[in-house]
Amino acid sequence: MKLFTKPQLKKLLENSWDINEDKDHPPVVKLFMTGTNCTWLLSELDPETQDIAFGLCDLGMGFPELGYVSLSEVKSAEGASRFLERDQHFEGEFPLSVYARAARYYEHIVTDREIVKKFVPN
After folding, report:
1. E strand or H helix at 32, and its extent?
2. 107 in a domain, yes or no?
3. Would you say the C-alpha torsion 67, 85, 50, 6 has a positive or negative sign?
4. Which residue in 8, 108, 120 sits closest to 53, CA to CA?
5. Residue 106 belongs to what domain range?
6. Which of 50, 65, 88, 110 has the most CB within a 10 Å radius?
7. Has residue 99 got a pLDDT over 90?
8. InterPro entries under this entry (predicted)?
């Protein structure tokens, strides 16, 4: 399975071209590593390398954080029981900061709409 569909790749690249320093795009794609608690909600992809992505990263240790991730590095962690997969049903509805607030509260990435919407600022 490809990590990104063509529309997702296009949106990830478009988001990276946004030079507004206050940007807070909704995540475009959710990746996860089978057999682990590792999850990534990605909103941008470096157009030059298409290897460095920005998003909410959760390595399953209770400390999800916003930052950059090397997709080739993540793929290199695949093994006999671990595969990098794309959640085919995920649609980012809220800004990435909202998912980050929910993740910090729950100590892992949460994507359930009813839970995440509680973290939308008033």
Report:
1. strand 29-33
2. yes
3. negative
4. 8
5. 6-119
6. 110
7. yes
8. DUF2958
| Positive or negative torsion for Cα 93, 96, 99, 101 | negative
The number of residues in the chain equals 122
Task: Decide: helix, strand or coil at residue 54.
Answer: strand
> Mean per-residue pLDDT for 75-90?
88
98: in domain = yes
What distance in Å separates the CA atoms of residue 77 and residue 85, rounded to the nearest whole number? 12
Q: Domain count of the chain?
A: 1
Q: Which residue has the tokens 């998912």?
A: 99
pLDDT bin (cut points 50, 70, 90) of residue 100 is very high
Examine residue 58 and state whether it is found in any structural domain, yes or no: yes
Residue 1 lies in a domain: no
Mean of the per-residue pLDDT values of the chain: 94
pTM over 0.85: yes
For 1-52, the pLDDT digits (tens) are 689 999 999 999 999 998 888 899 999 999 999 999 999 999 999 999 999 9
